[in-house]
Each structure stands twice: as structure tokens, then as C-alpha cells.
Amino acid sequence: MPRRGPNNGADKRNRILRAAIRIFSQKGFFNSKVSEIARASGVADGTIYLYFKNKDDLLISLFEEKMGDVVAGVRQRISAGGDALAKLRIFIDNHMELLEREAGLIEVLQVELRQSKKFLKDYTPVKFFEYLEVISDILEEGKREGLFRPDLNVSVARRAIFGALDELCLTYVLSHNPKYHPSVSSAEIYRILAGGLCAAKPSAQAG
Amino acid sequence: MPRRGPNNGADKRNRILRAAIRIFSQKGFFNSKVSEIARASGVADGTIYLYFKNKDDLLISLFEEKMGDVVAGVRQRISAGGDALAKLRIFIDNHMELLEREAGLIEVLQVELRQSKKFLKDYTPVKFFEYLEVISDILEEGKREGLFRPDLNVSVARRAIFGALDELCLTYVLSHNPKYHPSVSSAEIYRILAGGLCAAKPSAQAG
Amino acid sequence: MPRRGPNNGADKRNRILRAAIRIFSQKGFFNSKVSEIARASGVADGTIYLYFKNKDDLLISLFEEKMGDVVAGVRQRISAGGDALAKLRIFIDNHMELLEREAGLIEVLQVELRQSKKFLKDYTPVKFFEYLEVISDILEEGKREGLFRPDLNVSVARRAIFGALDELCLTYVLSHNPKYHPSVSSAEIYRILAGGLCAAKPSAQAG
Amino acid sequence: MPRRGPNNGADKRNRILRAAIRIFSQKGFFNSKVSEIARASGVADGTIYLYFKNKDDLLISLFEEKMGDVVAGVRQRISAGGDALAKLRIFIDNHMELLEREAGLIEVLQVELRQSKKFLKDYTPVKFFEYLEVISDILEEGKREGLFRPDLNVSVARRAIFGALDELCLTYVLSHNPKYHPSVSSAEIYRILAGGLCAAKPSAQAG
DNA sequence: TATGAATGAGACTTCATTCAT
DNA sequence: GATGAATGAAGTCTCATTCAT
Prior knowledge:
4 copies of one chain form a homotetramer.
Chain A: H1 9-27, H2 34-41, H3 45-51, H4 55-79, H5 84-101, H6 103-119, H7 126-144, H8 154-175, H9 182-197, H10 202-206
Chain A binds a DNA duplex (21 and 21 nucleotides) through residues 2, 4, 8-9, 12, 33-35, 38, 43-47, 49-50, 54-55.
């Protein structure tokens, strides 16, 4: 790992990662060329290999490091929240807002994470699992609080929640149709989930 | 269109499509070689180009034709259903069951459809939209029947539903962990959605 | 060689040759596809191989047979001519007029004959040599008549004459600029050659 | 443009061009393989694409750059000449001598320039036109000097001259028959042209 | 004789990666 | 550390030719 001044190795490494996000999000991993990322980062082709093992490693590093930031960010916002429903709302809003704060990153995650999960040899998306863990935590808390159904299958539910949010993001990314605007999607998906996860009389609470 | 005996063009074309599903689902579109698909189909490399314009066209044809079958299949099963909730259950079950009936196809759709939507020039996934349409129809009917919330945002909801199902499929495909078995996932996702989509007293109906 | 009725094999063979001229002249030998010629002839791809050994043979046959017609034609016209100068004029006019009567053929000869002379294995352009022979004959006759210089190097001169005519044809074919119209070129090239080939006072005769 | 030391980019580019001339002249453009040229240049296949856009570009660059040298060379030699006839002689001799100084180049020009003029999309053989321009200049000067016929059609004549020279070159290239030796051809073609271009009594001057 | 689907060798070109400077 | 020219393996696709019908 090349690091010297705070302004040197780490900086260059970051420029490369940011450029990679931009390029990957525009053209997809397989259609992006290492030399393109180099040019966009303002470094030489070879320099990329000083910071990353290879093109795959660039994608994986990007996932782990940027997802790490996302996980840390959402955890912090949630810690300020109230009950599980409130936290769920925060999680949803946070996810959808990423679309605007970190558009490129989200696009890469959406499209390439799937590929990687299947096709990159020996890659476990650690940070992605942590992100799912954040959802689990909320769901478990909701069950403990008696807010969510006691029979709620947390493993399945967290995937469903992630899947729904992810597809809504993709839809907006592809169409930029205002009817899928993050704020609109957030509200509706919250309503569905609040209704579907809650125990007894969710309608009273959701309303 | 090369076709002669009943045993000729259409058959060969189908063998190629089936092989493509197998290979694409195993290694992903970009990691699959045309010559591999040829070998798996028992035809020469060049033969593939008699039936498909190029590698992209092979993927697109696969999407459209196989998704066409899926859409037709689910429409038929739904037409036999009762109210919107019953139809939703049928839709969910049907989707998750595809994982076993058409594992390869589903895997390709999940991973590659995203790529394609973004990166294949000039490709509109017609049949995929029809599939979403099937969900819309159910949701609209549910609203008319007074079963679903009148304020339900159908556009958003159908995407959320598809996303949830899709992610659950992917999870099972990747892990084959029984805790995500189609039957388990189906039941839970139905419970969530039934709760979240319904008007007034969903708990009574879902229970 | 397949022949049956006058309307059968020979006819089909001719259709293929005519189509080949058209296609070769439009796109060049290497850029033309056998299947294209088949389509243009209204026969199946395989049929071409009943009449010609291969693609090269198609080009060579075309040269020999069509050049044969050209040679026969110009010989006949010349036999009606007067002295060597008159015959030269006929030859020149005839050559340039071919541009309009047999445009495609001339274009193929111009562009492809060169290739063939160099690169087709074991090909001697017999009919092309006969065409040159026609020029030699005129030049020799002119020398015998005392009309042309006695020191005229016939071998070189006939090539120079052919080269000049050929380039003028190519120029017109490529530009269709009226300043290179066959009639204009004919007149000028005749004036040059008449002046340059003749003995003593060519200007008197050429005027 | 890859260039560093004096021993680097430009040198490698030139080695490739020289190899291309050799290979193209031996086998023709279409029968030459890029990998063959790479081997003959002592570089890797991919290296060719660092210096040339593609195979077509290699041919075109070769034309333009080498013809540029030829044009510059002949212009310089001519500038030392006397009247138009003397210059014409220089031009002719120079052209025929290229056969020995630059055999490969001339062969490529002869055979492939024609193809290219017709079939390479969007290619204007700029340097070839300049070469023709050199002839025009001589002819115009001859007319001004009263040496050449005032009614001489310069456009046609320059093409005829080029065509005659070109065909004589090709003949020698193909046969290496001493009766077409450059020195022999030069003398004869000069005699023909001197006779044919001149005004009034060319025989007096040519004699 | 005629067909045209099938073949498969091989061409061009790309691009991740290396390494001498 | 940084560079970027060079590499060369490998992929997509074409097309002349064949042969079962």
C-alpha cells in the first residue's frame, strides 16, 4: 500500500477510485477500460497497478470501501432514530437519497455487485452483508419492541427490503422519471413495508 | 430464417438458446465465449451467426423469447385466480417457482437484464415491461375491488414487488441456503405485501 | 462444364458471370462475397461451384471470356479500317467507348486485372496479351507502311498506349467528370500518339 | 503519438511502414496479414495499432507519406531542369528509376492505389494528385514556352502520361524482362511524348 | 442439376498487464 | 513512486466452400 504524505499515495488512490466509479457507472465494468480510468484519474495506466492488484481488485476495493462509508453513514443516522419504524424510515430515506448524493456509486453497486457476487472468484461482499445487517438489526429491534410481527422472517424480509429499494433506485437511474423520484419512492415503499411488517394493527400506526 | 424439416432450423435455434442460457447463467454474459455456446449446442461457431446477429442479439433474443413464455405462463395461471390478493399470491409463487423450473433462465435474467437495460444500445426490454404490467394489473384490480389502499402508488409498488422477488431469487441462487427456499420466501414476501398493500384491516385478511 | 439446352447451363453460367461483373465492379474482388453474386444471379451459393472451380476461377473466367469478346470485337472493327493511323484511332475510340457499352467489365479489368496478374497463382492473362497483340499489329503495320518511325519500340509503345488508355478510363470511371468524357479523351490521346509515333512530319497528317 | 528517444516511436513506426511495403508488394493488400507485417517489423501485433488506426490506415499512411517523399524528390530534381521538354525527361526518368530505388513502394502504389481509390471509404489520395500536379506544371510551362501545342488538353495528357509510365513500370515489375528495362522504356516513352506534345515541328527537336 | 445450411479456419483488433526507464 | 510503450493472448465474427438432400 503506497502511502506517504496525506496528500500523496492516499490521494492518488482516491482519485483512481472516484474515476472508477464514474466510468463503471457510465459504461459498466466490462465495457470500461483500465486506461480510461487512468486517463480520468490523471495518472498513467501502470500507476493503477501500484494501488490495485488488477481490474477486479479495483471493483472490489470500490465496493468495500465505499460501501463501508455507506454503512457507517446509515448506522450513524439510525442511531439517532426512535423506534424501529422510525429507524426503518431513516434507512429507506437514506438509501434513496444516496441516489442523489452518490449517484455513480449506487449505479455501480446496483449493476455490478450482482455480477461480482456471482462471477468474481473468491469474493465475499463483506460490506454488503454489513449493510443487510443494518436492516436485520432494525427488524429484530422491531420484533423486540412488539412493533413488528413476531413471526417475521428477518432473513427473508431484509432481502426483500433491500431488493425493493434497489429496484426502485435502478428504475430512477434508468428513467429519471419524476414519478420514481426518491422522495416519492421513499414514501410509498415505507407505507408498504410499515403495513407489511407490523403486528396487529399496523394501519393505526402507519396512518 | 433457416428452416426446413421440423428437425432443422427451429430446433437448432432452440438448442443454441438453451445452451446460451446455461453458459450465461454459469459465467455471466461477458465471461461467456461464443465458441463455448457453440460447443455446448453441438454446432459450429459460425452457425450461431446464422440464427443470431451477434452475441448481443443472442442475449436479447433469449430475454424476449423466454420472458415471453414466462409472461404468457403467469398470465394464464392468474386468469384462473380469484381476487387480487389471490392473484398476487399466484404471481409470487409462480415467480419463485421459476427458480426451480427454469433456474438458468432466471439467473440470466437477474444478472444480465440489468446490464442490458443500461448498456445494450437501443434495447428496450419489451417483455420485461409486460411482466411488470402483469403486476400492475393485479394492483389496479385490487384497488377497484377495494382490497388495496386507494392511495397505492402502483408504479412504485410494482417495482418494489418485482425488486423484492428478484433479490430473493438471487439470494437463493447464490446460496442455495434452505432458509431462502422458494416456498419459504414466497410465504414471507406474500405476508409482507398483503399487509402493506391492503386497505383498512389487512391483518384480518392476511391472517 | 455443365451444358444442356442452350437455355440451361450456358444461360445460368452467363447470368453468374454478368452478376459477378456487376458486383466486382462495384465493390472489388476481395470485398465481394460469393453469396452476393449468387443472390444477384438468382442461383444458390452452391450452384456457382458447379460452373466455376472457386472464386478466383470466376474472376479469371470473366477476364478470359469477356476479354475474348472485346478482342474479337476490336479486331473486327479494325479490319474495316484504312491505314495504321486510322486503325489506331479505331482502337482508341473502341477502347474508350467500352466505358459506356461495358462499364462494369472495364472497371473490373482495370482494378482487378492488376491484382490478378500479380497475385493469382498460375494465371496467365491470355486474352489480355491478345489485346496487346492487336496494338502491336497496328504498330507493326504502321512501320511497314512507313507511317510510324522505323525505330519505334513496339513492345514498349503498346504498353504505353494501353496504359494511357487504361488510366483515362479509370479516371472517368472514378470521377465521371465530363472533362474526361471518352470522346474528349479519345481525341486528345489520339493526337498525342499520332504525333509521337509518326515518322517525319506527323503534324501534317494529324492535322 | 508515441515518441521518446530518437530511437523509439518514429523509428518503430518507420520499421512498420517499411515492412508493410515489403509485404503488400509481395502479396497484395488483401492477402497480407497484419500479423505478418508485425513479424516482419519485429514488433508485436498490437504495436501496429499504436501507430496506425487499422489495416486500411496503414495502407493510406504508406501512400501519403511515401508518395510525399516521391513528390518532393521529383520536384527538386525538376527545379534544376531546363525547358519543359528537359523537365519532362527528368520526370520520366525519375519515375522509371523509382522502380529500382523503391521497387516495393512502386509496386504497392501501382496495384493498391487503384483499389484504394475505388474502395477505401473516404480516402482522397492527396499526394497522388500532387504527383499529377507536377506533370501539369510541366505541361503548362511547355505551353507557355511555345514548346507544346497550345491546344494540348493538360488534364487528359497528364493522366495519359502517368498511365503510360505506370503500365511500363508494372510490366517490368511483373516480367523483369530486359526489353522493358527502365532505361529502355524511359527513352521510348520520352520519344513518343515529345513527339506528341510538341507544337509545329517536334521531329526537329526530338531528333 | 440445384440447393442452402452448415462448417471452421483464420483475420482483425482489443486491452489488461508488465517493465525498462 | 510513476510512467506509458509494448506485449500477445484471446475473442468476435466472416465467408469460401462443402455435401446431404
